[in-house]
Amino acid sequence: MDYHWYPGHMTKTIRQMQEDMKLIDLVIEIADARLPRSSRNPDIETLAAGKARMILLNKADLADPEGSEAWRRALEEEGLHPVLIDARKNGSLKSLTPMILKACQEKIERDRRRGIQNRPVRAMVAGIPNVGKSTFINSFAGSAAAKTGNKPGVTRGKQWIRMNKQVELLDTPGLLWPKFEDQEVGKRLAMIGSIRDEVLNTEELSLEVIAFLAGNYPGKLAERYGVSEEEIPADVLTAVGRRRGCLVRGGEIDTEKAARLLLEEFRAGTIGRFTLERP
Ligand code: G4P
Predict the structure, then answer these.
(1) Which residue intervals of the chain are DSSP H helices?
(2) Nearest Cα residue to atom 36 of ligand 1
(3) Which of 61, 94, 121, 212 has the highest CB neighbour count under 10 A?
(4) pLDDT by residue (tens digit) across 161-182?
């Protein structure tokens, strides 16, 4: 991940998005299903003003199904047409077209009243880094009918992926930036590995994960590592290190190594499926 969000970079990104907005009907926002709030940037409201909207909660394979369902309902109520997906799997994308058409119903009806029929919906994907924008577009393109080149009247160089007669997708995603104003947001994004571990160091971050798991998903750490969750996080980490044979010369526990292992397994879904925040 090599994004550093300084003001100049943001201005350029915003300008690009504003240009692309002129070409599309629908903004498909992608968020991480484990962090449906912190992995979004609220500035999308302004950027996507006047456009139809929907939101994909991606990496649903890593999120707690109960948490995902709670978020799906909450976002549905906001009128955001949420869909839970695993962008790596084509199958979960098939059901998207009806939802896309639903999100764009107003536009489709407006077209119809003007006598325009069967004009495909044009959509753009947007989201902060690492939520799965490229993976989604690749999966979408993989199952798409065709890639279309430059179209008359469309900015040169823009590629459209033609999903079917009804939907076309801009092949370059809109890049949003993480909203770090709240420290908690940075911490949570670091926990799922979405930003580099610069907010906290590896060991501190792993202690946050331990505290989160012990508090919200009791039994999971015990199940995976055979450790007692009653201890303070630092002692749990040491116990994980002992269990997993993370040792430095002389037989001491290598807590740094244990922390890396724990974070890796937490992020990969090996310990379980977790949702880090609730609606
Ligand atoms: P971006 O364009 O929004 O920056 O995200 P990108 O598609 O590059 O995806 C970021 C990482 O998330 C990738 O992993 C990708 O494989 C993974 N990913 C995307 N969608 C899903 C999903 O639905 N479920 C899961 N479990 N993972 C997903 P990576 O570690 O960067 O690469 P790799 O290890 O997959 O090669």
Answers:
(1) 7-21, 44-47, 65-77, 91-94, 96-103, 105-113, 133-142, 183-191, 202-216, 220-225, 233-243, 255-268
(2) 135
(3) 121
(4) 988 888 999 989 999 998 887 8
Atom of ligand 1 nearest to the CA of 269: 26
CA-based torsion, 9, 15, 19, 21: positive or negative:
positive
Distance 160 CA to ligand 1 centre (A): 22
130: CA distance to ligand 1 center in Å?
A: 6
- d(C-alpha 48, C-alpha 43), whole Å: 9
Calculate the alpha carbon distances from 185 to 103, 151, 195, 247 in Å. 28, 40, 11, 33
What is the Cβ-side half-sphere exposure of residue 71, based on CA atoms within 13 angstroms?
A: 28
C-alpha–C-alpha distance, residues 105 and 12, integer Å: 32
Ligand 1: which of 133, 135, 263, 266 to mutate, judged by most atoms within 8 Å of the beta carbon?
Answer: 135
Tell me: the pLDDT tens digits for 77-129?
999 999 999 999 877 777 899 999 999 999 999 999 999 888 999 999 999 99
> Does the reported pTM lie above 0.85?
yes
Q: Give distance in angstroms: CA of 152 to centre of ligand 1.
A: 34
CA of 201 to the centre of ligand 1 (A): 23
Residues facing 92 on adjacent strands: none
Q: How far apart are the first and last CA of the chain?
A: 28
